[in-house]
Amino acid sequence: MAATVSAASLQINDDALTVCSISFLAEMLANVLHEGLGHAATALLTGAQSGVLTTVAWSSDFESKLVEAGGTLANLAAALVFWIALRSALSATVRWRFFLLISLAFNLLAGTGYFFFSGVTNFGDWALVIAGLHPHWLWRSLLVVGGIASYYSAVFIVGTGLVRYVGVPRNDLRRLRNLTFLPYFSAVLLLCAAGLLNPIGIQLMWQSALPGAAGAHSGLLWLMYYIPKGTVPERSSDGIDRNYTWIIVAVTLSLVFIFVLGRGITLHR
After folding, report:
1. What is the pLDDT of residues 223-249, one digit of tens each?
2. Fewer CB within 10 Å, N or C, the chain?
């Protein structure tokens, strides 16, 4: 009987176009939370008169450690909200549960990954947060160690959630791979496309957009191998079928994200 159930689960398919569309929406939301809410809104509320918001950075004359930390803190706070929502989504469709899961993943991996990135490279938000703190090598070391520990925990949480709450069996590597690889490459493509148009400089494409997508979300490529044994689905494991509502909304918002926010918008207090 167990073999029959296992074989049946392997026949479940997920529509790639819908998975990519859901991933686009989740990545845009995570990006706007980081740059828009975490950096821009914090700056405007604490002293900035105006600034330029793009998909890769918030730029203004006003700087503070709170503003620099705000992007990561916004992502981590959002991850907590998505985790609670995912656990509570008892009757939601598999598409909505996957959206909550991949939103959790993008926010949590970006938030925890930033600690390690800034610690290693001495660049980015948290490098500015610890600037001027002594001994500097100790603070960088804490970022690296804390980043590794928190990122591994994030991978554990996302992988566990994918099995328990989206309903993908731990031994179904084909589905696990599809539901992690497709979001990963969707995020990289989207952020790079928007990053190319930013008005601040093409270097931010390599310094921010690409590391933020390819680096921070890389846990999606290997989390399937670190899902704890004994983790079983607690929800239905129906496949994600094609849904044109998700696709149309994703395409429409992606165009705005790339060609409007990607080029930059000026915000005033």
Report:
1. 999 999 999 999 987 899 999 999 999
2. N
Domain of 237? 13-268
pTM above 0.90, yes or no: yes
Helix (H, G, I), strand (E, B) or coil at 98: helix
* Total domains, the chain: 1
Which of 106-115, 117-126, 244-253 has the least mean pLDDT?
A: 117-126
Any domain includes 115:
yes
Is residue 171 included in any domain, yes or no?
Answer: yes
Span 258-262, average pLDDT: 96
Closest residue by Cα to residue 170 from 225, 92, 248: 225
Helix (H) or strand (E) holding 268: strand 265-268
- Residues in the chain, total: 269
Give the Å distances, CA to CA, from 68 to 40, 177, 182, 226, 241: 10, 34, 30, 32, 40
Tokens representing residue 56 in the block:
């890769």
pLDDT at 194 > cutoff 80: yes
CA 183 to chain centre: 9
Residue 200: phi and psi, rounded to 5, are -80, -30
Q: Is the dihedral of CA 103, 105, 108, 110 positive or negative?
A: negative
* Per-residue pLDDT tens over the stretch 54-96: 999 899 999 899 999 999 999 999 999 999 999 999 889 999 9
Sheet order of strands, 58-59 included: 58-59, 50-53, 265-268
Q: Is residue 2 part of a domain?
A: no
